[in-house]
């Protein structure tokens, strides 16, 4: 709960428009709501342990995907001339 309140306050100081301050929190809530059905079906089909491990794999792959632009910006990308 504290994280959500702090996120909104920090967002209010960083966001160019006030309505954008809580967009990250909205992303957490909407993402959680949208994935509930998918998680329930995967747990029903493969069990909790396998479903949890699948979720870990998806989290790892998306973290690596999110890291790629940062690495690319820091070291130069293979498709750009150096």
Low-confidence stretches: none
Order of helices and strands: HHH
Q: What is the total tally of β strands?
A: 0
What class do helices, strands and sheet pairing give? mainly alpha
Gyration radius, to the nearest Å? 18 Å
Shape: flat
Q: Major sheet, described briefly?
A: none
Provide the residue-averaged pLDDT. 86
Distance between the termini: 46 Å
Number of helices: 3
What share of residues are in beta strands? under 5%
What percent of residues adopt helix (DSSP H or I)? Answer: over 70%
Short description:
Helices cover 79% and strands 0% of the residues. It has 82 residues and is an all-alpha fold.
Describe the fold and architecture.
79% of the residues lie in helices and 0% in strands. The protein has 82 residues and is mainly α. α2 crosses α3.
Write the layout of secondary structure elements.
Elements: H1 2-14, H2 23-46, H3 48-75
Helix pairs in contact: 2-3
Write a concise keyword list for the protein shown above:
single chain; 82 residues; mainly alpha; 3 helices; flat
């Amino acid at each position: 709960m504290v994280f959500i309140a702090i996120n909104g306050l920090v967002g209010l100081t960083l966001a160019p428009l006030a309505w954008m301050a809580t967009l990250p929190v909205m992303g957490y809530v909407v993402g959680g709501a949208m994935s509930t059905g998918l998680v329930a079906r995967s747990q029903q089909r493969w069990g909790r342990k396998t479903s949890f491990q699948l979720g870990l794999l998806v989290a790892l792959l998306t973290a690596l995907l999110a890291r790629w632009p940062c690495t690319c910006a820091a070291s130069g990308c293979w498709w750009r001339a150096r």
